[in-house]
Please model this.
Amino acid sequence: MCAKVADGSSIIDILVYLETCKGRKVYLDYRKNPVGGAFSYDALLPEAREYLTRAGACFGTPIERLAHMNQPAIDFYRDKGVDLYTQPLEIALCAQHNNGGIGIDCWWQTSVKGLFAVGEAAASHGVYRPGGTALNAGQVGSTRAAQYIAARCQGDASAGFDAAASAALAEMGTLADACRADTGNVRDLWQHAAEEMSRCGAAIRDPAQIKAYCEAVEKQLANFGVTVKAADRAELAMVYRLRDMLLSQRAYLTAMEDYTAHGGQSRGSALYTDLTGGVKPFAQLPDTFTFALDETEAPLIQELWFEDGTCRTGWRARAPSPKMTTFLKTSGAATAKPATYTKASAAFVKKLRFLKGVGTLFTIIKRRELNPTVTELWIHAPLIAKKAKGRPVHHCPREGGLRAHPPDHRRSLTARQAPCPSSFRLSAQVPCSSTP
Model:
């Protein structure tokens, strides 16, 4: 958003945000064209005009254009009770996804043995996350975690688990007793916490407000059992959720405060107020929107951990990227970009010719931490749906490579052989290459 505010394409986000901060609601009306219908497609920015022209949508009202280009969107909102043909759609500036997360290893296991984090909870991608990879990261991470759990996490829990669990249950039981009251306030505290985080720790971030609210969160956590009250079971459930919310807020706010203390500036969808070295793109905007873009590519990773009752932060260098061979789909055949790959890997390129017209990116990675002779190739399953005609697709080295199993195929797969439901693995040299 930040890079697009100055050129005007994200000013709508800012204006909507300002209106919602006033307690107002903003709506998008698909039923009629702007300026009373007296607008020209030629007056649009070149990018928007070209998009509509290529889509054959330079006609009619917004809802007619949307029906031409994306009927499922209309159906989606209708299923949610909003008919875009008859009523406007409420809009707001909202969070889309989380970058960063809990530190994991190559099996998505955290530093706590037996605890796995996947998807947006895992730190498998950061500020450089390519668009659209979050879903695939969740799918692959879940599969690898499940494979490891099935192979290595059998039998009794690890030593010390029972004692730690008993202590946690006792602590939460004590908290429940302390928060019990005839009249509860947890719902109001929840709403206040949500509003405060949205005000200072969402898309628009003022370092002074971040610091002030972080201190308020620390104080509330320190006096949680005294200040938070619940009158019934439903409110007691909110007590635990509020505690989790405040713990998360403390972590995020501490990270934001540390980021700016190390010279961090606005980037992506986070606008940090900078009244000393920043620029306000439009004079009519409040001073809060004075910012400077972070255009550096600092090769450091920010880490945060909880120690002795305090959130601590540190910065470290990134781990070196593994050597990769990348196959880029061009003109009907998978071709290799300049790199080194094995003869066995090259054979798989020929197996991929059925993907003609898909236009996707294949990546082969040496998994040296698992087996120095193993190479893996992950492919998103929807790409092979047409070829397989809905049947499971596996890589069977002993059976001639790629094949779509018939509908009645019932071969039992072990945890080491089971393919991901949304992606499948090609092993370039040995089967079951990602054995936990």
The longest strand covers residues 300-307.
